[in-house]
Amino acid sequence: MAGGLSAPDAADTRLAAVRAWWRSARPQRTFGQKADLVYTTVLVGGTFGGMAYGTASSALAEVVDPASIGRWVPLLVLVALLAVASWGAVQGPVVFSVADVAQLLGAPLSRHDLVARPLRRAFAIGGCAGAVVGALLVVGLAGRHRGIATLDAVGVVVGVALTGVLGIAAGWAVQSSPRWERAVRAVAWPAVVLAGALALLAGAGRAGRDLALWWGPWGWAVQPGSGASTTASLAGLLALAAVTVAAVTLALRHGADAPTERHLRRAEGRAGLIASLASFDVRTSRRNLADVGSKGAARELGDLRRLRDLVARIAATPWGARRTGELAVAWRGAVALRRAPRLVAQAIVLGAAGTAIALIGARHPGAVAVGALITYVAAARLLEPMRSELDMPGRARMQVGLRLGRALPPHLVLPALIVCCAAALAAAGVAVAGDLPRNGGLAAVVAVAGAGAIACCAAMSARRGGRLPHEILFMAAGGDPSGGGFFIVAWLVAWPAAAVLTGAGPLLLATSAARGTPTWALPVCLGAAYVLVRVLRSEPQERW
Fold first, then answer.
1. Are residues 171 and 39 in contact, defined by beta-carbon separation less than 8 angstroms?
2. By the 8 A CB rule, do 342 and 414 touch?
3. How far is it, in rounded angstroms, from Cα 132 to Cα 194?
4. Which end of the chain, N or C, is more open, meaning fewer C-beta atoms within 10 Å of its C-beta?
C-alpha cells in the first residue's frame, strides 16, 4: 500500500484524520461553559443528593436488610441484567445516527475503532449506574442505626458496579449478534421463573439462601451485604470480576461484528423514537421499537377448534345471541393472544411475581405498591388487541356493528382472567411456603380480586391511546409555572397510580389489625373494578 502502511494502519490513520477534522470544525466549549456545567452539576447533585439520601435512609431501611438482600436482590439484579440485555434487541449501548451509518460505517474506516469509543463510554456509564444503586443498598443496610462494615459496604458497591458493566456487555452481545438475541429471548423468562422459585426457597432455610446467592453473577454481586462470610464475599466478587473482564474483553474484541443492517435499523428506530417522544406519542414510539426488534414472521395459529367451539356454544345461548358483536371482538382478541404465547407467558410470570411480592411484603406499603405496579405491567402487556382497536376506531362499527365503547370491555376479559389466574397461583404458592400475612385467606382473595381491578386500570390507560392530547399540553403550559411539566407527569402516571390504589389499598386494608376494617377490603376492591368497567364502556371521546 502507498506510504508503506498496511490496511489496518491506513484505516486507523483515516479515522484519526476524520476525528481531528471534526474537532477543528465543531465549535468546542469554552472554559467558562465547562466551569458553568461543573458548577451546575455539583449544585444540583448536592441539593437533590442530600434529599435523596434522607429519603433513601428512611424508606429503604424499612425493607433492606441482610435477609432481604440474600433473598430478593439476586432476583432483582437478574431481572435488571435481562432487561439491559433485551434492550439490545431494539437499541443497545452503541447506536449511531442514520447519517453516521451512511457516512462512517460505509467509509473505509476501522469499524472496531468506531465502535470501541462509545462502547467504552457505555461501560463507564453502566459501572457508574451500578455504583449508585449499590450505594443506595448500602444506605438502606446502614439505616435505622444498624450500621455496616466498611469492607462490606465497599464490596456491595463494587459488586453492583461490576454487574452494571456486565449488563452493558450483554446488551452489546444482543445488539451485535442475532444468535445472542435468540438465546436471550429463549432463556429470559425461564431464568426469571427459576430465580423466583429460588427466592421463595431462600426463605425456607440457609441451604436455599446459599443456592440463591451462588447460582449466578447476580447473586455473587450482593454477597457482601447478605451477611455472608468475608471469604465467601471475596470469592463471589473475584468470580464476578473474572466474568465481567472476560465479557468486556470479548465485547471490545468483537466490536466490529455487528452487521451494518442492524446498526441502520436501530438508527432509524432511534430517530422515530425521538420524534414520537417529542410530541408525547408513546404509542407510536412503542410501535417503532417493536418494528426494530421484530423477530420476523408471526407464529402459526395452531389448533383453535376448542376455543372456537366454546365461543359457538356461548353464542348459542340466549345471553350470547344478544351479544354476538362482543363475542366476535373477544374471539379476535383471543386469536391475537394465541399468536403470541411468549407474551402470555411473560404476563403470567409478572402477574404471579407481583402478587407474591405484595403478599409476602404486606407489612410494608412500599412492597405492596411495587407488587401492584408489576401486576399492572403484566396486564398492560396483554392489551395490545385493545390498542389495535383504538388505532382504527371505526373497525368495530363496520365489522360487528358495535360502537367503540362497547367493543373495549370484551378485550379486557381474557387479560383480566389470565392475570387473576396468575395471582391465584402465586397466592397458593405463598400459602404453601407459609408466608401469608395476617388474615391470610382474606388477603389471598383480595390479592386475586385486586389483580382484576389492576387490569381494569391498565385498560383505562390503554383507552387513552398512548398519545398526550394537545389540549392538555396547551392548558398546562398556560397555568403551570413549570411549563406544563406537572400536568404532563400527572397525566402519564394517573392510571399506574390508580392501579396502586386499587390493588395495594384493599390488600393493606385486608391485613389491617383494626377491628372490623378487613371486612371492607373485598367490597372496596370489587366496587372499584365495577366502576372502572362502567367507565370503560363509555365512548372514549375524552382522553382520560
1. no
2. no
3. 27
4. N
Q: Which residues pair with 100 in a beta bridge?
A: none
Amino acid identity of 299? R
3-state SS class at 148: coil
Is the separation of the CB atoms in 84 and 168 below 8 Å? yes
Q: At what angle do helices 440-463 and 485-510 cross, to 10 degrees?
A: 160
Q: DSSP code of 438?
A: S
Q: Between 150-176 and 178-202, two packed helices, what is the crossing angle to 10 degrees?
A: 150
pLDDT at 91 over 50: yes
**Residue 34 to residues 24, 30, 40, 339, Cα–Cα distance (Å):** 18, 6, 10, 53
What burial class does residue 135 get, using C-beta atoms within 10 Å of its C-beta: 0-12 exposed, 13-18 middle, 19+ buried? middle
3-class secondary-structure state, position 204: coil
Q: Is 189 exposed, middle or buried (0-12, 13-18, 19+ CB in 10 A)?
A: middle
Q: Is the dihedral of CA 355, 361, 364, 370 positive or negative?
A: negative
Q: 382 with 347: CB under 8 angstroms? A: yes
- Please answer whether residues 504 and 372 qualify as being in contact, where contact means their C-beta atoms are separated by less than 8 angstroms: yes
CA distances in angstroms from 177 to 168, 244, 450, 509, listed in the order given: 14, 19, 41, 49
Long-range interactions of 242-247: CB distance < 8 A, separation 24+ = 243/166, 243/217, 244/162, 244/163, 244/165, 244/166, 244/169, 244/217, 247/165, 247/166, 247/169, 247/170, 247/173
Tens digit of pLDDT for each residue in 2-50?
A: 444 445 555 556 777 777 777 777 777 777 777 888 888 888 777 777 7
The Cα 176–Cα 194 span in angstroms is 27
DSSP string, 55-73: HHHHHHHHH-SHHHHHHTH
Which grid coordinates belong to 516? 372490623
The C-alpha cell at 21 is 477534522
Q: Is 461 exposed, middle or buried (0-12, 13-18, 19+ CB in 10 A)?
A: buried
Helices 341-360 and 485-510: angle between axes, nearest 10 degrees: 60
Question: What pLDDT, in 10s, does the model give residues 345-373?
Answer: 888 989 998 999 898 888 888 889 989 99
Of 422, 324, 420, 343, the C-alpha closest to 384 is: 343
Residue holding cell 396486564?
379
